[in-house]
Each structure stands twice: as C-alpha cells, then as structure tokens.
C-alpha cells in the first residue's frame, strides 16, 4: 500500500514526533532535572581526575568511578546539606521571633534619629526570605525522600557517564545539531563556566566566609560561625556578596553603642575582604576560566529562579551558551555572504574582462 506522505512530510513529522516525545520526557522528569544537570556538571569537574587515573595510570574504571562518587558525597553533599540546613533553620527562627531584630532596629533608630521599618514589615520580610531560600535548597523544599531520590539519580547518572564515557561523548557529537568547531566552542564554554562558577567560586566563597567569620569574631559580633556560613552563600553574588553580611554586622555594633568595633568591621571589610575577593577573582579567572561578571550576575538571577541552588552554575552557562550561539550565527551568516559574493564574482569578472577585448579591436 502506498504511503500518503511525501518524503518531506515524513521528515517533518519525524522531527515533530521526536520533539513531542522529548518534551513529554522533560515534562515528566522536570522535578528531577537538577539531578541530571548536577551529574553533568560533576562529570566536567572530575573529568581531569578521571583522565589522569584511568587513561594515563590505567587504574580500574569501576574503582575510580566509585571513588569519585564517595568524594562527591563526603566533600560536597554532606557539607552542603549541613550548611544549608543550618542557614534555613536560623532564618526560620528569626522569622518566628522578629523581636530580636526589632530590638536592634529600635536601638539603631534611637542612635540615628530615623525611623527604619515597622515590626509587621520586618516579620514579612523575614518570612519571605526564609521561604525564598527554602525554595532554592532542595533538602528542605522538596522533602527528605525527594531529596534522596535526586541525590541517588545524580550519583547513578554520574557513575554511568564515567563508565560509558566514550559512547556518551560520541553521542553528543553525533546527535547535537552543531558543527565540530561549534561543539568545541560549547565545550570550552562549559569547561570555563564550571571552572569559574564551581571550582573558582567555591574557593572565593570559602576564603570570604572564613575572613568574614573571623572578622565578626574579633569584633565580638554574636554567632560569628553562623554569619560566616551566610557569607559563604552570599559570596556567590559577584556584586553584593559579603557586604550583605559584614555591613549589617557593623550597623548592629553601632546600634549597641560599640562605635569602635563598627568602624573596625567596616575597615576590615572594605580594605581586606573586598580586596582579597577582587584579587582572588582575577587570579582564578586567568587559571580557571575568564567569565564576565555581568554574565555571572544575570546567569545567577536566571538560574537560581529556574533551577534552584544548582542554577548558580547552570544560569551563567545558559547565558554563555546564548552568547556563543549568537557568535556562531553571526560568523556563519558572514561566511554565507562571503561565499555568495565569491560565487557571483567570476560572473562579473568575465563580463568585465571581455569589455577590453571587445573594445580593443574596435579601438584598433
């Protein structure tokens, strides 16, 4: 029996079917998307170790894969869950007892003579902040069981990415609709983003956190360890960062009448912490991937809103990929125009060259 579709129609319907099925799969896996994104990011982070141990030293593939999973759990997952739980629990406690912050604000109003904010507004702000941060961190936002499922999926996917490394990389080159040089650019952009926004940013945030916590401890701010943890998360913001922590701490000491300690916090923050941050970012940018701060800032706002905490990496990556593809589009358009001109040039050249030959005899 003859098929009613033309070859072009079958081709279009095949593409539409693939897109439809892919969309349904993404919709069904939407709540677990962070697991697969996290596995891909960790694959890029740990791949240099994998290449060194498996490809150069010829270690057992399965053993190295299991070791990398253990490193992920011990170094990344457990500390992250502990820090995020501490942060959110404390924010919830502040939201339930706004009088602790109101007392500081009243003293600050008395010292400055300006009315800052009302009790009701303070409680609403604290509740909104606690709710927003909870939505970013999957450990409390999605429940323990769902969080364990996400972590399990991430580790499982990461294991098979390493074990099936060759097929995975060949599959990317085979099925992604880009040329080889475009894939290379996208790979370089992925590596630069992961290095800058994971490895480099974690180093910067850790140093910033330690310096902020020590500063608050030296100048007798209550609970410096907790505020050091807050500084670790705030340091991911490339513009605001840790001033959101030591700035209010200086205001707190000023409200308590400790003017000297407030000035000390401000001096250390402005002279030491900010300069160390700038110096580290410059050094690490040269070593780990030079990402423009505006790309990072826009990507953070975009990524955290869509993907949660993993959006700290995925967001800047999306912006970088957009810019790379725009550059590829511009370059291919320019190449197409150049090819069109080169194709048209011989026609004009032949007609132009025939004019002297035609006029030569006439002139003679």
From TrEMBL:
Q: Where in the cell is it found?
A: Membrane
Q: Which cellular component, as a GO term, is one annotated location?
A: membrane
Q: Does the keyword Transmembrane helix apply?
A: yes
Q: What protein am I looking at?
A: AI-2E family transporter
Where the protein is mainly located, per its record? Answer: membrane
Could you list the residue ranges that cross the membrane?
none
Q: Which Pfam families match?
A: AI-2E_transport (PF01594)
Regarding the membrane, this protein is recorded as: Multi-pass membrane protein
UniProt entry keywords in alphabetical sequence? Membrane, Transmembrane, Transmembrane helix
Q: Which family does it belong to?
A: Belongs to the autoinducer-2 exporter (AI-2E) (TC 2.A.86) family.
